[in-house]
Please model this.
Amino acid sequence: MKKIILAIAVSIAAVFVSHAQTTTPPTSNEPKGELTFEQSSHNFGDINQGQQVTYTFKFKNTGKAPVIISNCLVTCGCTVPNWPKDPILPGKKGEIVANFNSAGKSGMQNKVITVQTNAGQYSLSIISNVLIPAAPATPAAPAETK
Model:
């Protein structure tokens, strides 16, 4: 019985090995798309807490095939990207608009946008220093006189 099970296992393994040898590897000669960004990072500098700022990342398809942006992932809900849904043809330009809402944020912020495409992933970032408004001064209590 053990010999039969072993013979079946060897036969199955042989089928997998022969199948693996008959598949053709993908050709690397196929044209590929590639996005080249004018800037991959933008620093807004100091902004006030609650302020909403927007930056437009401009790019060009410098490859030889269309690029399709399937998604733009962000590190938090305070950043909302908008990207082209149509394929970007070779030589054509496009934009990714990033909106950042600083409400509830303070200090240095670095928000990363991961652009997922059929040509690979790209990382963009928007940086800012969110300033908290100064607390209003409280009037001094009148001094007591004796």
User: Anything to note?
Assistant: The first strand starts at residue 35 and ends at 37. Residues 15-26 have pLDDT under 50 and may be disordered.
